[in-house]
Structures are given as C-alpha cells and as structure tokens.
Structure prediction request, 669 residues.
Amino acid sequence: MSQQSNINELELNQLKEMANIIRGLSMDGIQKANSGHPGLPMGMADATSVLWMRHLKHNPTDPNWANRDRFVLSAGHGSMLIYSLLHLTGYDLSLKDIKNFRQWGSKTPGHPEYKHTAGVETTTGPLGQGIANAVGMAIAEKRLAAHFNTAENKIVDHHTYVIAGDGCMMEGISHEACSLAGHLKLDKLILLYDDNSISIDGPTGLSFTEDVLKRFEAYGWHTQRIDGHDHEEVDQAISSAKNDNRPSIIACKTTIGFGSPNKAGTSGVHGSPLGADEIILTKEKLGLPSDKSFYISENVAQFAGNSKKTGTSAQATWQENFNSYKNKYADKADLFNRIMTNALPENWTENLPQFETGSALATRSASGKVLDAITPGLYEMLGGSADLSPSNNTFPKDGKVVNSDAYDGNYLHYGVREHAMAGIMNGLALHGGIIPYGGTFLVFSDYMRNSIRLSAMMGIRVVYVFTHDSIGLGEDGPTHQPIEHLASLRTIPNLNVIRPADGAETAWAWQSAIENTTGPSALILTRQKLPNLERQTGALENMQKGGYVLSEAENAKVIIIATGSEVEIALNAQKLLANKNIAARVVSMPCCEIFDAQDEAYKESVLPKNIAARIAIEAASDQTWYKYVGSTGKIIGIKGYGASAPYQEIYKEFGLTAEAVAEVAEKGV
Prediction:
C-alpha cells in the first residue's frame, strides 16, 4: 500500500470490538424479526467500522449538513449494517428501533429508506441502484465545488462512499454508471466492494467469473484488492483512494457471515436468520456475551458516540469557513443557500416563453424553447440526454457540457445509458443543489422504470423528458412507438405524467415539474408539429389543475377528453359535430395525477355527471381512461402495436381522426 495506516493499538482494539458489536446487533435484530440478511453486515462490519470512525465526515446531530460525506449502502438488503452504525454513532435511531427491525411503523425497514430514517441518504433495494445514486452524488459534488469554491474557501469538499456486493456488480446499471464515472474522473467517489463470492443461489462462480477489478481498470478507476477483515489494510486502502485522481474501487475480500462457525462462507447466511443455537456459538467465537441480546459494551458506546463531538466540531469549522466566504462572496453564498434549500428565485416564471396562437411546433421543440429561456436564471438545472440531445431538444442554447476538465457546466452527455441516467439523476437530486432533467425516447422508459419508481417513492424532484411519444413518430415503426408506456407510467404513485398539447401546456409542464419538490415528473413530448391552441378565458389558470375545459359548447351533450397530439383531433371533431348540431365540450387532460388531486367541485365542473356521453382519445393503451368515461363512454386508443409509415397515415389506419371521433360521438348521443 502506498499509504500507511496510523491506527494505534488502542484504537485498533476499539474498531475490532465495534465490528463485533455490529455483528451482534445484526444477528439479534434479524433473529427477533425472523427475517433479514445477516451475511453482509457480519462480513463488512470490519471495513465499515474503519470507514465510519476514521474517514467518514458526518454529524449525527445534523444529518443534512451540506458538506457531509455521503454514505450509500447499495446492497440494501444488508440494512442492519447501516442501522447498527447509525445507532452506535448517535443518530436519531434508538435501540428500540433496532429491536423493531422490519416491523410496522419502525425506523428500521427491511431496506434503507430515504426520509424514513435519519442518516439514510437514499432508498436502496434493487441492486446496483445505490451505485448509480452515488455516481450522481459525486457528480453533484464536483459541479458545485467547481462553481462555488475558491482557493481560500472550499465550501463544497466531501467524498461519496458506497458499499456494494456481487449482486450490484452483476446488475447492468452498475456497468453503465461506473463507466460514466470513470470517464468523468470522479476522484471523490470510493466504492467498497464486498467481495465474498456468495450469492443467493450459492457460490458466485455459478454465473459470475469475471475479474471485476480488470473491468474497473478498463473504466479508468483506481483499483485495490485487500483483506476486508484487516482494519489496517482497510484504512490504508481508503487513504490511498482519497489521494488518487480517479474514482476508486476497493475489493474487500470478506467472509459472508463472518464469525458463524457453521454458516460463515455459505449462501445459507445470506438471507436467513442464523438461528438461536448458531447465534450462541457465534457470539462465543466473537467474544460477545452469549446470554445477552442487543449487547453494546460501554467501551464501544463511548468510542462510537464520539462521532457526535467530532461531527459537530467539523461542521462548526465548516460554518466558520462559510461565514468568511459569505463576507467575500455574498451573491454566491446566497445562491448556495437557495439551491440547497430547494428555493426558487422570485418571479422566475416570468422567463417562461409565450407561444403565438396559430403557429405550430412539436412539443419537444417547445420544451427546448422553455429550457433556452429558463436555464440562465436557474443555476441548479442540470440537463442531459441518453445520446439523443438533438432529438430530445434538451441542450439549452447557453448549454455548457460537464466533463472531466470543466465540471461547472449545465449539461451531461450520459451516452446510451438510459438506466444509469435515471439512477444518476436520483443521486443528483438527493445530493441537493441540483434539479436534474434527462431525455430519451418514451419507449425507452422501460429501461428506466426501476429508477423512476424509486424517485417517486423517495419523493424527490427529478424531471424525465420523454420525446417521440406515440405512433406520431412514424417511420421508425413499432419498436420505437410507445403504446403501453403512458398507462404504465401513470400507475406509479407520486409520479406526475404530463402530456402537453401545445407550447402553452409545455411551458406549464416545466413550471409544474420545477415547482414540484415532493416527487418526480415525466414530460411526454411529440416529435410531430402541433398547433398552438386558442383558449377561452380562465383556461390558462385552470390548466394548472391538470385537466380543464379547453373549448366549451353551449348545452354540451358529449365530452371529448384528449391529451397531447390528440387534442387537435378532439377540437376538429368538435367542429364536425357542431355542423350536425351536436354540442361537444373538449377537455384537455395534460396530467391525470394533478387533476385527480383537485377538489370534487372542480372535477365536477370539468366532467359533470349529467353528461354521460364521453369519449377519450389517446394514441396509446386505453387503460387510463375508464375512470373518466365510465361504463357507457368510449375510448379511442390503440390495442396492439404501431406500424412503420408516415404518421398521418398511421393515425388514419388506427382510427385516430376527427371524422372517426365524430362518428363515435354521434352514435353515443
């Protein structure tokens, strides 16, 4: 090792004892719950004790301190590891919480959950997600440091540490994310790999024989292989990683279930309690009192509890530095405080563009114009695309690319890495100070679904820009034409799916997404041009309620509901019906989720119960619309897949025309 460990004998003994206490708490918590994964906590207890006590910069009394190091347990099934560490170091997690592991209402759910437990930086469970989140956090640190730091005052200066296992390494998202991390030279990203060669099915050799470190060398990472149970080697390796100019992976060779006489090193300890008899044997081997559950020695309580003192001191020193910085750079300090508290500039919406009625443009183009207008005034915006920037219109005219030579940009080229892009955006948002948005075609949202679901679960502000939203993309054919994707995304709780019909609705879609600090938004945008629509008085205000009356007809006998490109079809159908003396109301429904959240009086004013004749139109699966049209209404959508042809012809062949809508409406009344 190029770095030398300076752990003295007293501290070394304290670290060893702390690791064994973590093992005891993990065994007991899982045994009491009769459910959980003791293998990883027992195997990685040594490495994490060194990390948390000698390297991790954190303050248990203020888990949200801006300049803390970030710690991510990507292998979230080993949650008793982080819960034990949080409790021992003084976070708001009691021993009672540890004893209530995996129970209703406890702070210790089966996998760590963001906002649920103080000190947990992200929700992890699906393997590999935490690695992508950590890459996003490291990018955020780099970008903010490049913008705010000066030679005298480094106010953004912290590391991101992540623990991952073999499962995380197998998942494709880790390949995507770590490849990009190497390209960007994220030198403050350090990954501790629990290299224990065991998965649920048995030895990893059943399916996983690659040389992981050679893979990471190819990515451009700094690599080390150590004994994960040797505290001094762990300490040396982390120090070496911190002094390298590349992201680092430390392969910690460990024994899963370390200390268990009969189950250590086997798949049997991965995801099942050890059993009462084996716990007694294990505690005896580790030197823990076998007759006590949830035992914490006074020595370890005091040793780990010192984290409060050291953390408070570190934050106080940082605060003095920040106060000095604010005296010299008041504007930058104010900006830093604003973005780290999710506040927006006053009157920022005044920069939103206006769109001339009667002109026509694709909503992806309207989205690009919105970004051109607002990004100069919103430093926190960090955009990107999965190698589709010209198609997604996500690169603003003032765009400056983030790369390894210049991190203070506002745009990331993610490459063809849709899943990693979504996971990284979650990490960017979780770090704070960033509003991430990223684009790809809607059909590829399938690659991203796990990450989208997690951003919705965590309630974080992430903006997904999905273009080429329907059969309207035409000649590329059914492989690229989304059908079921809108309905699928709308089933995700706490995700606002917004499909605007024109420029005005697109501008509102961006406003809604940026102002929504409690969840993600998916903007669904067209490739084909759409007319900018004329609206009646009050429609612009009601648009913000998710659904609204776009065009009224006196004594309406039928309601036509549509989204996106199909709103134009609805308006043309309304005219055809008027020629036949059938009055039709047209409702634009850009966001079902926001509309459904309105009070009953407003929803009744848009969709009155006394008008039973209803038609919903959308160039997609019809699953969304039954709740609006009822059992007697009609839905004009697509039940199969698309086709390869000019989009106008495809719409005609699928019955998505004003004439077809008018014919259905005429029969319905």
About this structure: The radius of gyration is 28 Å.
